[in-house]
Structure formats: C-alpha cells, structure tokens
Design goal:
about 260 residues; mainly beta; 24 strands; globular
Length: about 260
C-alpha cells in the first residue's frame, strides 16, 4: 500500500483503523480492511513519536512544537498545546496526566484537556519518553544528563539531577526496576543507576549506540529463562541485540547480522 511519506514512528491500530504518522508532516487514518484512507490530520512538521490512545482520544506530538488531541473517528482536533520546542517522543501516561519533553529544554505535565499543569527545566533537549513510576518521573536529555522529579500534583519537585550520567544523548526511556534505573545512551554504554540518589552502580559497554527502549524479560510459563534479563538493541550490526543479566549486568548473549 503506497504511504504518504516516510514513517519513523510506529503506527497504531485501534477500532479497525490504522493510524500512520509521517516524518515529514501529517498523519493518516486507514481502514484495516483494504487500507482505504479515512482521514488526514495535517501538521506543520513531522511526527517522530508513536501516537498514544488515552481516554478515547488520539494523542500526537509533532516537530511543529505541539501536542495534539484528536478524535480518532474523524481526525478532528480536540486541543493543541504548544510545548515551546519540537516534540520527538510519545507522551507518557500516568496519574491521569500526560508527561512529555520537548526541544525547548523542558518537561511538561499536561491534563487530558491539554492544560499545562507543571513544567521542569532541563539543561538540553529532551528527546525521549520519560519513565513514570508512581509520583516519580525519570528522563534524560541529549547532553547525557539524567533527572528524577516528583510530581507533587501542582508542580514538579526535583529529587536529583541533572546528573551527567552519560557522555552523549539519553534517548531511550529509562527502565525502572525496584530500586534501580537502567539507562542506555548514544555513548555506547548501559548504566545501572540507584533510583534514590542517581549514583551509577555499574556500567556495561556496547559496540553501538543505544537509541531504542530496553526490554525486561522475566522467567515465566512462556519464557524458559533462569533469571531476569535486560534486552538492549544497538546500532551496530555485530551487536544488534544484547541480553544482560538484570541482577549483575553480565553479558549473556548477543545477536549479530
């Protein structure tokens, strides 16, 4: 099926429709049965983050500085909120709110009506989706700084950070596990970080930049594992996918091409 442009973000499926964002501009809704066009929503610049469904609305961030809420049936705009810079990630949903960073060096908390409920300044651009765990929000910036902030309901309270964890961009969403954060970076390292203090516990080197979100796999009926593992993708063909032990960071295996 010919598309309306290049696609760098994952499309999503909901209610027999496929919603496709384009890196140049705009988003299309296509019928899953035959991929007939249903509607087009036009943006001034591209969409790099996967759309998100929340409370019956389609939430989309764009390089044109806006986060949009759309009616998924018609593509009509419900609201748009200016983020003071390009938005390249999927907003995170938690606590009945949206959390999204921008190239305006700022993390935002939005109500589901688009109202800005809180902001937190960063040192540099925020490219990736934050991790939300209870009232805590964890995120990195493109300079390699890591942040931990508490959502107080009416504002953000910095718990620690910015801490220069990495020497290059942190784009992947931090992986939260118990008292630990696991953070991948473009500096070709994965970091195990103490959630309470931001102190680096251990570091593991990779052959390629870590840009994609990491995956925690735990032993279960469908997973014949003898321990929990952290699966990391990189940009290097010789280490496209790596599995590390969650507990001690031991490199268990790597898949190459």
């Amino acid at each position: 099926v010919p598309l309306g442009g290049q696609v760098v973000a994952n499309p999503v499926i909901e209610n027999d429709s496929l919603f496709v964002p384009y890196s140049q501009a705009n988003m299309h809704a296509l019928a899953m049965n035959g991929f007939a066009p249903e509607w087009t929503f036009r943006t001034q610049h591209g969409i790099y983050g996967q759309p998100l469904f929340v409370d019956g609305a389609l939430i989309v961030g764009s390089l044109d500085h806006n986060v949009y809420s759309l009616d998924p049936a018609t593509g009509e705009q419900i609201w748009a909120t200016d983020m003071s810079g390009a938005v390249t990630s999927t907003p995170a949903y938690g606590n009945n709110a949206l959390y999204v960073g921008s190239f305006g060096n700022r993390m935002f908390k939005l109500g589901l009506d688009g109202q800005i409920l809180g902001t937190l300044d960063a040192v540099n651009w925020i490219w990736g989706t934050p991790a939300v765990a209870g009232d805590m929000v964890y995120f990195g910036d493109v300079a390699g700084n890591l942040y931990a902030a508490r959502d107080t309901g009416s504002s953000f309270e910095m718990v620690w950070g910015p801490l220069p964890i990495a020497t290059n961009a942190i784009i992947a969403t931090p992986l939260v596990n118990g008292d630990t954060l696991i953070v991948g970076s473009r500096d070709r390292h994965v970091y195990w970080v103490d959630r309470a203090t931001g102190a680096v516990i251990q570091t593991r080197e990779t052959k390629g930049e870590v840009l994609g979100n990491m995956l925690l796999l735990e032993p279960g009926d469908n997973l014949p594992l003898n321990q929990p593992i952290v699966v990391v993708s990189t940009m290097a063909n010789e280490e496209l996918v790596i599995a590390f032990s969650l507990e001690n960071g031991e490199r268990l295996w790597a898949y190459s091409r």
